[in-house]
Amino acid sequence: MAMDRDNVIRKIQALLNLANGTDVEGEMDTALLMAQKLLKKYDLDMDDIQIKEEVADLTTEESDDFTRTYAWMWHISKAIDILCNTQHFRSGKGWKFRMHFCGTKTDVIAALSMFRFLHDTIQSMGKYAKFSGIKERNSYCNGVGYRVWQRVVENNQQEKLEAPEEEVTRTTAIVLVKDQAVSKYVEEHHNIKSLKPKTVSRNRSAWMMGMRDGNRVPLSTSKALPE
After folding, report:
1. Quick check: 81 and 87 in contact, CB under 8 A?
2. How far apart are CA 104 and CA 16, in angstroms?
3. For the chain, which residues make up each domain, given as ranges?
4. pLDDT tens readout for residues 186-221
C-alpha cells in the first residue's frame, strides 16, 4: 500500500533526524540512503522536508580584509562551495570586504584554507604574467578563476558518472542535508545582502590566456591545508 505524501515526508524527516543525531557510521549511511530513495521514489526535494535538528557544529569562518573584490574571487568561492560543501557570502562596506564560508567546522576550515591558497595563487599568476595595465591583469585573473570553477564542476560531474550508484545516492543525500542546514543557519545568524561583483569590460586575449593557465591550478584541498 503506497504511503500518502504527508506520511512519506514524516518518514523522511525521521530518517534525516536519525542520520543527524547518530555517531554510528552504519546507521547514518543507512538512514541517508533510505531517505534519498524515498525522495526519488515520490518525486520530492529538500524544499518539501523540514529537518527538526540541524547538522551539528555549524559555524562561519571569514577571510582577511580586502580593499577590493573581483569577479574571480566569486568564481573560486563557488568552486570551493562544491569542493567543501559550504555556502559563501561577502560582507563589508567602504574599503573593507571579507569573504565568509558557512558549514560544518571541518568544512569551513578546509574552505577558508582553499580560498587563501587559490586567492594567493591567482594573484601571483597575475603579477608574473607581466601585463601592461590593470584591465589586462584583472581579465587574466578572471579567466583563471572562471576556468578553476569550470574544472571543479566538470570533475564533480565526472565523479558522479564513474562512482557506484549507491555511493552517489549516499553522497547526494549528505549534501542535501548539509545544504538545507547551512542555508537555514545563514538565514538565522547573518544579515546578508546580495553583494556581487560589478560587471566590467575585459580584455579578451588576456582572459583567454587566463582560461588556459587555469588548467594548471591545483584543485586538491589537501594542497591548501596547513601542515
Report:
1. yes
2. 16
3. 5-48, 58-223
4. 676 665 555 566 666 788 999 999 999 999 999 875
